[in-house]
């Protein structure tokens, strides 16, 4: 069990069996932040280590102090090795559909290994599109040609353009844990969809108990995927006993949070960094922290 925390903190009802990991550490307050260096963090950022900087920087501009507690890590998917060969051999795909920054990063590595063939990409939103910015500037063989009116898989599947009167072929490199919403939506519209599970997510193997205690005290936890929500639930054990807020990157993640029992759930109508920050600020206001 943890030692008794100060009165301002709540202690979980169950012992936390996570061991101390030297690889997990708090994000230091930015010197430009208006929050004092000794102030308690108000937002917990939970993406994989090294991928929280944009959100942290955006929150620091509002004087918000953060704590980094990665909840998930990415692993190789069962179909990853197939992707380069398919891209190198099969040039008949009308669209490559990418629905997350991680899916985009994994795809780019395979695309380069395949010799950078000509491809036309549809992305779920501007955040995912940003993964391709450098490649778009330096090589004309990859074209990001479609973004839906709303950054969700359902809307992407309903709006992806058909090309001519032929049966459009779509290659969908995805997380092994992603739902079947996109391929079902496209198939119902007559698209021929090839899905490859190129990566997956797992909870981090170790969590620093000291940082976790700080995280449990923070008024807002920011999460970017249903997998991160599930990992957080596993840490707090009893979601009904944790009464602070969770700020989700989008509607899909928020729906998972509500299904898993979290009560104070905030999310933007239009997913992306700007909307996510706005939802975090709204959650802080609700908790009288802003």
Task: Explain what you see.
The chain has 290 residues and is an alpha/beta fold. Helix content is 33%, strand content 19%. Strand 1, helix 1 (53-60) and strand 2 (66-68) form a beta-alpha-beta unit.
Distance, first to last CA: 33 Å
Quaternary state, please? Answer: single chain
How many beta strands in the DSSP annotation? 11
Task: Note poorly predicted spans.
Answer: 1-38
Report the sheet-strand fraction: 15-25%
Short description:
The protein has 290 residues and is of the alpha/beta class. It has helices at 53-60, 82-89, 101-113, 126-129, 133-138, 153-159, 181-188, 209-217, 226-236, 251-259, 273-286; strands at 43-45, 66-68, 72-76, 95-98, 119-123, 142-146, 169-175, 192-203, 220-223, 245-248, 264-266. Helix 2 packs across helix 3, helix 6 (153-159) packs parallel to helix 7 and helix 9 packs parallel to helix 10 (251-259).
Keywords for this entry:
five-stranded parallel beta sheet, 11 helices, six-stranded mixed beta sheet, disordered N terminus, alpha/beta, 290 residues
Secondary structure elements and their pairing?
Elements lengths: L42 E3 L7 H8 L5 E3 L3 E5 L5 H8 L5 E4 L2 H13 L5 E5 L2 H4 L3 H6 L3 E5 L6 H7 L9 E7 L5 H8 L3 E12 L5 H9 L2 E4 L2 H11 L8 E4 L2 H9 L4 E3 L6 H14 L4
Parallel strand pairs: 1-2, 1-9, 4-5, 4-7, 5-6, 7-8, 9-10, 10-11
Antiparallel strand pairs: 3-8
């Amino acid at each position: 069990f943890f030692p008794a925390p100060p009165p301002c903190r709540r202690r979980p009802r169950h012992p936390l069996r996570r061991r101390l990991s030297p690889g997990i550490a708090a994000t230091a307050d930015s010197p430009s932040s208006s929050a004092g260096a000794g102030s308690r963090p108000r937002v917990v950022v939970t993406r994989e280590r090294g991928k929280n900087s944009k959100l942290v920087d955006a929150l620091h501009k509002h004087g918000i102090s953060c704590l980094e507690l990665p909840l998930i890590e990415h692993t190789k998917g069962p179909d990853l090795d197939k992707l380069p060969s398919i891209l190198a051999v099969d040039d008949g795909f009308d669209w490559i559909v990418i629905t997350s920054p991680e899916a985009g990063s994994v795809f780019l590595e395979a695309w380069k290994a395949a010799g950078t063939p000509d491809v036309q990409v549809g992305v779920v939103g501007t955040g995912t599109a940003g993964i391709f910015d450098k490649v778009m500037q330096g090589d004309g063989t990859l074209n990001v040609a479609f973004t839906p009116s709303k950054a969700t898989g359902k809307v992407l599947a309903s709006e992806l353009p058909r090309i001519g009167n032929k049966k459009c072929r779509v290659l969908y490199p995805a997380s092994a844990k992603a739902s079947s919403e996109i391929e079902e939506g496209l198939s119902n519209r007559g698209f021929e969809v090839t899905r490859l599970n190129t990566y997956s997510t797992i909870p981090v193997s170790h969590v620093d108990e000291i940082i976790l205690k700080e995280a449990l005290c923070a008024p807002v936890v920011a999460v970017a995927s249903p997998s991160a929500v599930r990992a957080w639930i596993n840490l707090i054990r009893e979601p009904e006993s944790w009464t602070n807020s969770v700020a989700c990157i989008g509607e899909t993640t928020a729906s998972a949070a509500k299904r898993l029992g979290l009560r104070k759930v905030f999310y933007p109508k239009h997913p992306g960094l700007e909307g996510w920050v706005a939802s975090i600020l709204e959650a802080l206001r609700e908790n009288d922290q802003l």
